[in-house]
Specification:
four-stranded antiparallel sheet, Neuraminidase, five-stranded mixed sheet, globular, mainly beta
Length: about 180
């Protein structure tokens, strides 16, 4: 196989979420292929839908709608998957707010969520769990900040709760 000047699409990934839906569908979101120093390194912004009959559909999104995402969580609440956090490409990360998106599992439209309150910050490698039909708890992980042009990665020791109805973050009393 001849080498190419650009990465080739690949489904062999790390940092990709897998969500099991009722009635047998499986949803895979984003992830990355290879390490940042490898010529085939790529972070993806796509969604795989595995149907119960074995069919696979792949949805690709413009970066302006859904940027490349890896090491996020994907939490199913009703018909929506809430995608929280990401490591992302160097130079595009480290903003102060938590990256969040909502995927409609009926239409596969994706939208950015802007929230108020005290969020975890630019987080990746964390865990998330549904607390109720409209609340998600985020625990663990690493917070990334940029200070003086240098990235700083710090392990997080607090839990946060996101209310999907009010679109508000709150720091949890649990650690």
């Amino acid at each position: 196989m001849a080498p190419t000047d650009s990465p080739v699409w690949c489904a062999q990934r790390v940092g990709q979420s897998i969500t099991f839906l009722p009635k047998g569908r499986i949803i895979q979101i984003g992830g990355e292929h290879e390490d940042h120093y490898d010529p085939d390194f790529c972070i993806y912004n796509d969604v795989f839908v595995h149907e119960p009959d074995g069919a696979i559909r792949i949805f690709c999104y413009p970066e302006a709608v859904f940027p490349p995402t890896d090491f996020h969580t994907a939490t199913l609440l009703g018909r929506y998957i809430y995608i929280i956090g990401s490591l992302g490409y160097s130079g595009t990360r480290g903003q102060s707010r938590t990256p969040m998106y909502r995927l409609d599992t009926n239409s596969f439209q994706i939208e950015e969520i802007r929230a108020d309150g005290t969020d975890p910050g630019w987080i990746y490698g964390h865990a998330a769990i549904a607390l109720s039909a409209h609340q998600i708890r985020v625990t663990g992980g690493t917070i990334l900040t940029c200070t003086g042009g240098k990235e700083v990665h710090v392990e997080k020791d607090r839990s946060f709760i996101f209310d999907t109805r009010q679109k508000v973050w709150a720091m949890s009393n649990d650690r």
